[in-house]
Structure formats: C-alpha cells, structure tokens
Amino acid sequence: MSEQRARIARYVSATPGVHFNALVRELGLAPGQAQYHLRVLRKERDVVEEHLYGKTHYYPPGYGDRERRVLGLLRRETARDVLVYLLEHRSARPTAVAEDLDIARSTLEWHLDRLVEQDLVEKRYASHDHVRLVLDDPEELARLIGDVDPSLIERMADRFVRLTDRLLDDAGRDG
Question: What is the CATH number of domain 71-148?
Fold first, then answer.
C-alpha cells in the first residue's frame, strides 16, 4: 500500500463516517487525488463507502450497515447536537430542542425526518397531540458517539457528575 493510501486509511479508521469533503480538507489532498486513492482502498476492501443524504462517508471495515448510517449522521453537527440533547434529557418536546439548540424549527424537523427514518429517534404522541422525542437505542448511540468524538463522552460524564452533585447538594439542604 502506498504511503498516501496508508495515510488515508489511518485517517478513515480514526474518524469513521468522515465525509469526502472533510477528508480532503483535513488531509490537504486534491479531490481527484483523494478519489483515486479511495477507489483503490475500496477495491482492496480497506475502506467502506456509504452514501447518506447527499454526502459520501467513509468507514474502516467492521462497521455494520446501521452503525455506518448512525456514524454518518453523527458527523453532521446539527443532527449530532439533537442526538446529544436527547441523550442528556432522555425525552423532549421538539419546541424545547429547537429553542435550547437555537435552531429554527424547520431545521430541526429536517434533521428529525432523517433521524426518525434511520430509527434513531421516535416521535411519540401524547395527549393533546403533543409530540415527545425519544431515542430508540440510547446505549448504542452513546457507544457510537465515542467513535465520533471521544471528548464528548468525557464532557457528558462531567455534566452527569455535576448534575448528580447538584441533586445531592439540594437533597442535603432539603433534608
């Protein structure tokens, strides 16, 4: 394997689900050069390619179809923000998600359509036709987020510890 292909394969392995433009930008490659080497890597089965909602993503071998789709969506900032929000809150109304993330409701709905289609988020209808958003498989999502952004898991653990400390502190004052 050439040094350039080995470099690309290492990068894909370290950033599963990376999309083509990010790979080109981060590695400082010309698009045609990247396409050539990725084509060879795919042929040799060192890299897997997946097209998802208008973007081409690359993965090391070993990820299943669903994992690849989840990772591809996690590589998209707004979709990742929505999923992390739901991991933290377990359930939320779309209005709260849009307000807390400071995104337009139409932007949220665009991403939710894809997250629902990929069975990552479920829209549950409660009384008065109020919708609650709930993650389909929070454990799988938490595991795959670590593949996208390991520091995110650390930040979430820190938030959990702070929340637990606050709750225990509040309980101590009330008790």
Answer: 1.10.10.10
